[in-house]
Amino acid sequence: MYRAASGLGALKHGADTQLLNIAVRSASTSVAQRSSGGFLGWLTGARSNALPPPDFALPGVTIPPPLADHVEPGKTKITTLSNGVKIASETSPGSACSVGVYVHCGSVYETPETLGATQLLKKLAFTTTRNRSQLRVVREIGAIGGSAKASANRELMSYSYGALKTYMPEMVEVLVDCVRNPALLDWEVKEEIMNLKAELAEASSNPETFLLDALHSSGYSGALANPLIASEASISRLNTDVLEEFLALNYTSPRIVLAASGVDHDELVSIAEPLLSDIPTATGTGKPKSVYVGGEYRRAADSSNTDLALAFELPGGWLKEKEFATASVLQALLGGGGVFTWGRPGKGLHSRLNPLVNEFDQIKSISAFKNVHSNTGIFGIHTSTEAAFVPKVIDLAARELTSLATPGQVDQTQLERAKAFAKSAILKNLESKVCVHM
Asked: Where is the Peptidase M16 N-terminal domain (predicted)?
């Protein structure tokens, strides 16, 4: 326990503190008087020109006016070009904008000959095009302080680019060029294949990533059974010819959307239409079918713990908002986490799963998860535990899932808390300019 200082010691401490404060203020004033040439001048002992104010104008950049006290929510506008390409935009306050090209194409459209193509195309997203070298692409993105990235999943390829609103025309032109006109040079393809093999080898050793892939391969019959993490043998078969054929078959106009946040819609259409209106309208392959059949997958691994997932189908997918919202509340209600995650949002003492970590030392982590697609999805519980404790932890996971369907096992306070957490997560994603979907 700390005790307050008293007597002469306290007086002496107070006097010393006062003298120290006076000395600091005097030194600060002295430095300010001697640093009229800026911080760099004071640091080097030389005088330099005064630093510009933090709000000085950049040539060619227009800063929007300050926000009003009340800002109306941005409205989404959609324009469909004659060839079927959709252009969508939403206004938003602030000086930045985000532009993305989204293609309804992923691992579900791969064949045995093209397994791994979407992941390789993601790696090649901002490399050499027919109009720009890779160095020029990187320099043009960096010259305006932009940030570009690409991602690939089972049903969607996305290419996004964010920067100041002033540079929106340049952003659209570079982004469309990278998506439509990849040069796919042999040496770049081979280099990215080597990089992809290294990344996938690392991902396949990640229990959470590997289990999700295993759940799809064993739980589905059809396109969703295609691995997102392709084997090394499959990747080795890929080359420039295979990628070009895959692009021609799948990157067609009805499956492409250009979406932007924080831009004027009419201006966006006037810039993007000449760049997108000549994309072929061929429908390509039909939408692949997938049927959930259930199953079991096991693989031996050199690890002291056993990772397992108990999951089932989430019918409806993105196209049925009610089912998706229900799954989000269930995930928040179950919560979960590991030994060191008690302080994370939604993973504390109010979670139904995390107390199991505290009750059973054999459980290292346990949490609910979901993976949703357009028409279906997977919902379940993932846990990491000691091998001998696997039968018990399966019983515990099944008990928690059963309790959610049992009247009286979830009180109103828990339900309202889970709803609030799910709403918070959804609203947080909607605040992000890059969370724009087809």
From this structure: 87-230
Q: Give the pLDDT means over successive 10-residue stretches in the chain (438 positions).
A: 36 42 41 44 53 71 70 82 94 87 94 94 95 95 93 94 94 96 96 91 80 93 92 92 94 94 94 94 77 90 85 88 89 78 48 85 91 92 92 94 88 88 83 51
* Cα–Cα distance for residue pair 67/6, rounded to 1 Å: 53
Q: Which CATH architecture has domain 76-277?
A: 2-Layer Sandwich (3.30)
Strands in 357-424 per DSSP E: 363-372, 377-386
Superfamily of domain 303-431: Metalloenzyme, LuxS/M16 peptidase-like (3.30.830.10)
pTM over 0.90: no
Cβ atoms 164, 95 nearer than 8 A: yes
What is the number of other CB atoms lying within 10 angstroms of the CB of residue 298? 7
Strand-pairing partners, residue 261, are: 90, 98
Residue 48 CA to residue 171 CA, distance in Å, equals 37
The full set of domain ranges for the chain reads: 76-277, 303-431
Assess contact for 103 and 139: CB atoms under 8 A: no
Q: Is 198 helix (H, G, I), strand (E, B) or coil?
A: helix
